[in-house]
Amino acid sequence: MPSCAIANDLADFSPLEYMQRAVKNSDCRTPIIFVQQDGDPFQSVCYLAKQCDSAVWSFDVAQLQSAQNIMDYIDVGINNGDWVYVTNCDLVDESYFRDVARTLYQILPEPHRYPRREVFRCFFGVTVPFDLNAPVGLPFPLLFMHTALVSRPTAAPGSKWSRIMPADKPLFSVAALKHQQRREAGRESDSESDLDETDRISGVIFLRAAERNRDIGQSVVTLAKHQMVQAIDEQDDGLIRRLVSSGEVDLSRKLKDGMTPFQYACCKELTESVRTLLLVGADPNAPREADGRPPLFMAIDDMELAKVLVEGGANLFSKFEGYRADTHPDTAPDVAAYLAEERKYM
User: Which residue spans traverse the membrane (predicted)?
Assistant: First the structure.
């Protein structure tokens, strides 16, 4: 079982400098790798987490049967800002962390729903050092290593965190030159950012993402889509007609969940909205793109909706999963009888 640590009385505690720098130079999408042979940084992690009002969930891979437990707490931490601390990661195969790598890589900023997402951090300890540029034998998947920071103390006075550097010599020389230029300018030599020291990198990224999401959400096209979804859900005949006649909504384009307005109304079995959409020119036979299901097969258990579709020109000879609507095994008996009767007169 995981253990949870919340630092309480650490007023006189000095955290390890290399862990401080790793946290400072990372964001919520960056796995931080440390070597347990260098010492136990758990107290330092707890101290740094307390500054963000976060708890630390600790796991030992050697005592776990499945990675799902770790994944569950990472999912929670991504949303509420808690930190995850995992040790003995090199005792299992690299595939153990494949889902973890994919989850961290795909994190998206959602500052309105999850404002503490940017303070989330995760730490992964290995028992002994390993070759960062080795073609095989790495304890983590390549996707994981591409975004990770490796935090280790150095033999020289002071401490620093280290990252994976390119094995190619010219690229390494360029990186070393950049470090030298930063030192000469009095900046943090390991920082790849041109922002001022007082700016939080992930904070700026999240702010800009929020502004972009706001601009998209307030665009004319997006607002019209929201109005159309609301009109269909509330079966507002007047609003549906206005949005279609004004050209703000195209009945042939996807509206929600990969469906056109007509397919969405049929899927939700909103009969009045379906009737209105047919009157303003919706195609009663266009199949849903996701699975090829025609609208008529969305009404196989709703007699009233089936009648509206038949009156609107639905093709009773169309097939889905190899069946016509009146012979499909999921069709309600009364609806099947009605469709079979109507098909005789077509």
Answer: none
The pair of three-digit structure tokens given for residue 136, joined into one six-digit string: 């095989």
Taking Cα atoms as reference points, which of 319, 260, 304, 248 lies closest to residue 284? Answer: 260
Question: Are residues 152 and 123 in contact, defined by beta-carbon separation less than 8 angstroms?
Answer: no
At 284-340, the pLDDT tens digits run 999 998 889 999 999 988 999 999 999 999 999 999 988 999 999 889 999 999 999
**8 Å CB contact between 122 and 32:** yes
Domains in the chain: ranges and CATH: 3-164+179-210 (3.40.50.300), 219-343 (1.25.40.20)
What is the spatial distance between Cα 180 and Cα 159, in angstroms, rounded to a whole number?
17
Mean of all residue pLDDT scores within the chain: 82
pTM: 0.47
CA distance 43 to 58: 11
Q: In this structure, what token pair is assigned to residue 337?
A: 């009888």
